[in-house]
Structures are given as C-alpha cells and as structure tokens.
Amino acid sequence: MDNDELIEMHQQLEALQLEHRDLDAAINALQENHYLDQLQMSRMKKRKLMLKDAIARLESKLIPDLNA
Fold it and tell me: Can you list the residues of the chain whose pLDDT is less than 70?
C-alpha cells in the first residue's frame, strides 16, 4: 500500500467515525423526544451498525500484517 492510499483510507475512516458520532447524537436526541418514530429510529440504528462494521474493516486494513 502506498502513502496516497493510506492517506485516503485514514480520511475515509475519519469521515465514517464522524458520521457514526453524529448518528449516535441524533439517535439520542430522538429518544429524548416525546414523539418517537420507531421506523426512523430503526433505520438510524441499522445505519449506525453498518458504519461500525465499515469502520472495523477499514481499521483492520490499516493494521500492518505481522508476517510482512
């Protein structure tokens, strides 16, 4: 992996982490609201899980192989 690819992957990781944090805040705000839209909540939680998986995959790609 060259330096440009590493930089791009780190930028993607930061963007995903930011979206994950924003989504977490939005979910918390929605839960505090008296009117709770269950469908919206379900979609947001599903998106948050997808982001978490994408973050984990990127992080594992950024860890250097021990055999290399």
Answer: 65-68
